Amino acid sequence: MKLLSGKFAIVTGAASPRGLGKATATLMAAHGATIGVLDLEATAAENVARELGDGHVGLACDVTDKAACETAAERLLSAWGRIDILVNNAGITQPLKIMTIEPENYDAVLDVNLRGTLYMSQAVIPQMRRQRSGSIVNLSSVSAQRGGGIFGGPHYSAAKAGILGLTKAIARELAPEGVRANAVCPGFIATDITEGKLTDAMREQILQGIPMGRVGTAEDVAGCCLFLASDLSSYVTGSEVDVNGGSLIH
Ligand code: NAD
């Protein structure tokens, strides 16, 4: 059964070859959605759109730039006539400790993760309101819930916790208008965000904290995003869904 036939979906930060965004875009395309792949570089985004098949669109969009978010949403809306799904996936992290966070670190991490989620949501909400339907899926992290400890520093935890608050507030404000918003909290997933930055000892320590005994895959997260984007989750809004192999059972 295809869950997203006839739907139009934007996924930010979807050009990373092993990333959660690309895996989500791929699964949504397989379920019948037309995808707008957004990322920093046009060529990388266009290449992923081409890989997904005919009809998908790749665009350059820096989510920290409000005008760029609006332009990307307008271009896709004029081609599609509607926007059903937004996955705010673009994110960066830095493995810093509390006293080593410089102003530029704070700005970089908060801007991409939190400001970008706000700006891209603001770019699609007017259309979702007009449609009286839409699903926004925001990538938070287990770091927000347990105060870091996997890889990102305190500023990353703060940004991802900010996303939880923002998601719930969007969900509350837009629920009467038929627009849903939910957050996904992945645990440790092997992607390029940590590639080459993780020692064997760090990896071993992470594995010990995962009851399922394995690191997550991008497809594990994509499946959860698909559920939240689809009508299977039609009565789910303002929730945070853990995808972490049981590492935060409480
Ligand atoms: P990744 O580094 O593989 O991909 C992130 C993508 O975001 C890249 O393609 C990058 O170019 C893009 N990006 C960065 N800044 C951008 C900007 N300003 N505008 C647009 N695009 C931008 O990372 P990933 O592991 O696939 O992570 C995806 C999301 O999931 C992130 O929000 C991350 O914080 C979150 N997350 C990841 C994990 C994990 O273990 N991998 C765990 C929890 C949460």
From TrEMBL:
It comes from the Bacteria. Signal peptide: none annotated. InterPro entries: NAD(P)-bd_dom_sf, Sc_DH/Rdtase_CS, SDR_fam. Belongs to the short-chain dehydrogenases/reductases (SDR) family. PANTHER family: BLL7886 PROTEIN (PTHR42760:SF135), SHORT-CHAIN DEHYDROGENASES/REDUCTASES FAMILY MEMBER (PTHR42760). This is SDR family oxidoreductase. The lineage of its organism: Bacteria, Pseudomonadati, Pseudomonadota, Alphaproteobacteria, Hyphomicrobiales.
